[in-house]
């Protein structure tokens, strides 16, 4: 697990995005949404985006984007993001993302983008037939962040490589256009035990929306019975719980369940192991189910409540889009001037 400690010392602006594709799961919550709420509570200037332009890099069911966008906005709020304090908005409503992505397409180098492992994973063996958008996805991600000159990006561990690319693009833009310090080099915030939640069926694969097995993940909309059943059926091994973190070596499924327990109960893995050392999964799994349900139940209830009022969610998104445009448009005016476009 990587701990990326922020080193940036100027004023902070936080940006992150979540795709409106499929049901959110515990990995999305612990890797991203919970951190969003924590950063907002810490008083930071935050923008949280439903990245619908990213969603269309893969086929999307016809007519599904609007309701899925509302679902993600509702999940942000249910997880504790307050739209009065943070900006919640849909990416496609702010044209700066697409415009800056094009400029960054001309800054990023093919070799940089070709190294991105997510493209290889998502395109699979048939990369020739993948959309060009899927390939340049991380360039759009750099534009998402830098259109707001955001300095900090809370994400799960899977996004680390993309964030490094964003820094490379910012640095090259600043150098190529003779504008030192124009874009900040955004810092990934990939911290704590929730940064990489793995599949309940295979501790070497990340928990993912696109895993065909629903038993591999805990969805934010799962009820208490579904959660308990999935945890009961989660893969483990025959050994008891070890007493130290070193004892988790070579036991990825057990390490994952202990990590989930730690993240949800606000403890370290070491203290969870101290509590359960020598016990079997017959004792640990019900305790984990209890902690998970206790943490998620109020979030799920709030999520359902918010979804029952789509007009309310739309008002939040429209207001957010306006506020996001007000932040990004002055940045884009400076970008156009810096690049040297006519009329800028
Ligand atoms: N397993 C995970 N553990 C921790 N964080 C995770 N994130 C995703 N999976 C995990 C974080 O969730 C945020 C939203 O990600 P996204 O909307 O870009 O979706 P994704 O990463 O494509 O989500 P999935 O579930 O992994 O979808 P598929 O199956 O399409 O690959 C990001 O901050 C991400 O790091």
What is the fold's blueprint, element by element?
Blueprint: E1 13-18, H1 26-41, E2 45-50, H2 52-55, H3 65-78, E3 87-90, H4 96-105, H5 110-114, H6 117-123, H7 132-146, E4 152-154, H8 160-176, E5 187-189, H9 224-232, H10 252-265, H11 269-276, H12 281-307, H13 310-339
Parallel strand pairs: 1-2, 2-3, 4-5
Helix pairs in contact: 3-12, 3-13, 4-7, 7-8, 9-12, 10-11, 10-12
Bound molecules: adenosine-5'-tetraphosphate.
Task: Summarize the model shown.
The protein has helices spanning 26-41, 52-55, 65-78, 96-105, 110-114, 117-123, 132-146, 160-176, 224-232, 252-265, 269-276, 281-307, 310-339, and strands at residues 13-18, 45-50, 87-90, 152-154, 187-189. With 344 residues, it is mainly alpha-helical. It has two domains: 13-195 and 310-339, Rossmann fold, CATH 3.40.50.620; 214-305, Orthogonal Bundle (Tyrosyl-Transfer RNA Synthetase), CATH 1.10.240.10.
Give structural notes.
The protein is mainly alpha-helical and 344 residues long. It has 13 helices and 5 strands. The chain has helices at 26-41, 52-55, 65-78, 96-105, 110-114, 117-123, 132-146, 160-176, 224-232, 252-265, 269-276, 281-307, 310-339, and strands spanning 13-18, 45-50, 87-90, 152-154, 187-189. The protein has a 3-stranded parallel beta sheet. Strands 4-5 form a two-stranded parallel ribbon. Strand 1 (13-18), helix 1 and strand 2 (45-50) form a beta-alpha-beta unit. The chain is globular, with a radius of gyration of 21 Å. Adenosine-5'-tetraphosphate (AQP) is lined by residues 18-19, 21, 27-28, 30-32, 155-156, 158-159, 195-197, 206-210.
């Amino acid at each position: 697990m990587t701990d990326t400690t922020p080193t940036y010392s100027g004023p902070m602006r936080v940006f992150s995005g979540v795709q409106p594709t499929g049901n959110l799961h515990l990995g999305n919550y612990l890797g991203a949404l919970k951190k969003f709420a924590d950063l907002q509570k810490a008083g930071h200037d935050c923008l949280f985006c439903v990245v619908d332009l990213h969603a269309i890099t893969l086929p999307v069911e016809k007519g599904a984007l609007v309701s899925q966008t509302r679902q993600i906005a509702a999940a942000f709020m249910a997880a504790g993001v307050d739209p009065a304090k943070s900006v919640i908005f849909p990416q496609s409503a702010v044209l700066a993302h697409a415009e800056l992505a094009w400029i960054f397409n001309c800054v990023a180098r093919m070799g940089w983008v070709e190294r991105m492992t997510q493209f290889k994973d998502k395109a699979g063996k048939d990369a020739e037939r993948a959309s060009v958008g899927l390939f340049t996805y991380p360039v759009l991600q750099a534009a998402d962040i830098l259109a707001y000159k955001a300095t900090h990006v809370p994400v799960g561990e899977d996004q680390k490589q993309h964030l490094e690319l964003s820094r490379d693009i910012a640095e090259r833009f600043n150098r190529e256009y003779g504008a030192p310090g124009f874009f900040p080099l955004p810092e990934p915030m990939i911290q704590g035990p929730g940064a990489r939640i793995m599949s309940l069926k295979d501790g070497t694969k990340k928990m993912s929306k696109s895993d065909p097995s629903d038993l591999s993940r805990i969805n934010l909309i799962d009820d208490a019975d579904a959660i308990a059943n999935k945890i009961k059926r989660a893969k483990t091994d025959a050994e008891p719980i070890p007493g130290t973190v070193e004892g988790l070596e070579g036991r990825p499924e057990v390490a994952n369940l202990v990590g989930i327990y730690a993240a949800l109960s606000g403890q370290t893995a070491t203290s969870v192991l101290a509590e359960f050392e020598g016990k079997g999964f017959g004792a640990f799994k019900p305790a984990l189910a209890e902690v998970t349900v206790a943490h998620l139940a109020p979030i799920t209830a709030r999520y359902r409540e918010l979804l029952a009022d789509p007009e309310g969610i739309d008002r939040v998104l429209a207001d957010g889009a306006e506020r996001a445009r007000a932040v990004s448009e002055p940045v884009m005016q400076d970008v156009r001037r810096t690049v040297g476009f006519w009329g800028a």
